[in-house]
Amino acid sequence: MAIEPLAETEKRVQPRWLSDDEQQAWGAYIRLAKMLMRQLDRDLHPFGLSTNDYEILVELSEAPDNRLRMTELADLTAQSRSRLSHQITRMEVRGLVRRVACDGDKRGTFTVITPRGLATIERVAPSHVESVRRHFIDHIPPADLAVLTAAYIPVMERLRKVRDRD
Amino acid sequence: MAIEPLAETEKRVQPRWLSDDEQQAWGAYIRLAKMLMRQLDRDLHPFGLSTNDYEILVELSEAPDNRLRMTELADLTAQSRSRLSHQITRMEVRGLVRRVACDGDKRGTFTVITPRGLATIERVAPSHVESVRRHFIDHIPPADLAVLTAAYIPVMERLRKVRDRD
């Protein structure tokens, strides 16, 4: 008679609930992240930008020839390609970026930052960096920042692979 | 002749740019947060929930009498009241929560989780906790989690006050 081993069933069914410490860490992480994003969006609002717009302008302004393939930009900004494409269209309408075909290259198009986009980032950057300092960086001791960087980078690399696989 | 002191002008104009270490920490923090939220949303998608829906159901299910004032819920979930109100309306339409008037209390309404909302959270929780573990908690050493919790809680308290003041 085939009886499913109880231990196996239990293992599958029992969720690995978070311990109190883990729950507290997760709550602090995700809640702070949401609050920060909303605050940064509010601080960028007077400039007519969102944090997503800002992030894309920075990546493009720092890229060689001020341009990136859509796949590279999706990777750098941790967005899905379809979501990014909508975002780029909205930014194109406002004259901040422009799509150009890759010469002799079938792998799609580049996104280029326009002179207007460059001027925008230059104007907004001092205020944005001040807001990142005021709401986050200035309140975390440098030693803790180093722990954070070392802990998060491998988690991020892993997540990027999960996304690419799916 | 009134000449503005140069030092003062310089101080106002010079942005306090991030150091390389700070830049790396900030990039790791905010990029991971975005990737995690998108991944958790994708993992919740088959259940018809977003991470925001999930968070609200958890807070309500853990509250006394399964209900919270809108102001309390806005505080706990770090959302603005207007954004939260739209979210609650969408969840009400789907039968997950319900608004009720506070007896003899002019301070507005309560949001209550419905039996359907409770059943939903019970069904989804094991999968969600697994996804939090797989994408974040299981990859961070407990000592680092403790450092991060201690670092984030005061930053969060500060941000909450900034938001209330504005």
What's a quick, concise take on this entry?
The structure is a homodimer of 166-residue chains. With 166 residues, the first copy, chain A, is mainly α. Chain A has seven helices and three strands, in the order H-H-H-E-H-H-E-E-H-H.
Overview of the molecule:
Chain A is mainly alpha-helical and 166 residues long. In chain A, helix 2 (20-44) crosses helix 6. Chain A contains seven helices and three strands; from the N terminus they run H-H-H-E-H-H-E-E-H-H. Helix content of chain A is 67%, strand content 8%. Chain A has helices at 6-13, 20-44, 51-62, 70-77, 81-93, 115-135, 142-165; strands spanning 67-69, 97-101, 109-113. The longest helix of chain A is centred in the first third of the chain and has 25 residues, at 20-44. Chain A starts with 5 loop residues before the first helix and ends with a helix. The model of chain A is unreliable at 1-6 (pLDDT under 50). In chain A, strands 1-3-2 form a three-stranded antiparallel beta sheet. Chain A is globular and about 55 Å long. Chains A and B meet through helix 2, helix 6 and helix 7 of A and helix 2, helix 6 and helix 7 of B.
Radius of gyration of chain A: 21 Å
Helix-strand string of chain A: HHHEHHEEHH
Query: How would you classify the helix and strand content of chain A by structural class?
Result: mainly alpha
Largest interface pair? A-B, 59 and 59 residues
N-end to C-end Cα span of chain A: 39 Å
Strand content of chain A: 5-15%
Largest sheet of chain A: 3 strands, antiparallel
Overall strand count of chain A: 3
Average pLDDT figure of chain A: 87
Oligomeric status of the shown chains?
homodimer
Q: Order of strands side by side in the largest beta sheet of chain A?
A: 1-3-2
What coarse outline of chain A follows from CA principal-axis ratios?
globular
Number of helices of chain A: 7
